[in-house]
Amino acid sequence: MKTSGFILRFVLLFVLLICVSLAALLIGSVKVSFSDLMNLILFNQSTDLIKQVIFQVRLPRILLSVAVGGGLAVTGGVFQAILMNPLAEPYILGISSGASFGAVLSFVIGLGFWGSQAFSFFGALAVIFLVFLFGKRFGELEPNVLILSGVMVGAFFSAVILILVTMLNDTLRTAVFWLMGNLSIADSSVVYYVLPISVVISALLCFNGQKYNVLSLGNSTAQQLGINTVYLKRFTYLAASLLIGVLVSVTGIIGFVGLLIPHLCRLLFGSDNRIVLPASFFIGGAYLVFADTIARTIISPAEIPVGAITASIGAPIFIYLLKLRYR
Asked: Class of 3-326 per CATH?
């Protein structure tokens, strides 16, 4: 692909993300007009209420949505590429459930924020190990068995989480709402921590796009072409586990983003992971901003867990995309 065409596509995707984010800034229980927003951006002139709504409520939430949606979409695309399975993604593989279990366990023990991060990471990593352990047959990785193993391991950890939450005090029972995917925790301190991690790890995974292309030809072919497949896979699993652990510990489980968005990008741009993975970050971020805007406004001033919105939107769209792809 020509460099100019490559750049143009990502400029358009960035513009899409900006447009969706600007719309999300305006929509909510407190009305903010476009002129109010422009006066604030250009002249720093606005009421204290609008400044508070934009800078303390909506903007942090939008930035967190971009970080989470983009990160989940990239990890989904990476798992689909490295496992050569179109159904592979953190939610279906059970990795999100493992990270959530780690976070809830840290709450039970009474650990702080960093303890939650560490437990989420190791929970995600443990699930990857278990899924691959169960997914191997006669030394070879069976794609269908891998997916079934992920579903079963994820269901097991989800059940353990519900048992823990049910048996413990009312404070932990509020974790049920968080487990369904919730971005209301967004504030400046969380965003400043999550957004850079999501961008950096997603970028590192995207830089390996060409290697994932070669890996799709098979392990033996990739090794003959100079790819250290063992190192590449280990790096990918560790980086993806770290990113998923960070995201899930903050927002809970948000499904279908990592499944739907990479498929959509492949339909739009082809199968080249050098394009699909970074495009997934932009479109995944825009998609979650859109879904969260619906979640916080549809029954305002209350809100619906954003995970329920992404599942409601994502499931039928994914079925339609599968029909387009395989008809």
From this structure: mainly alpha
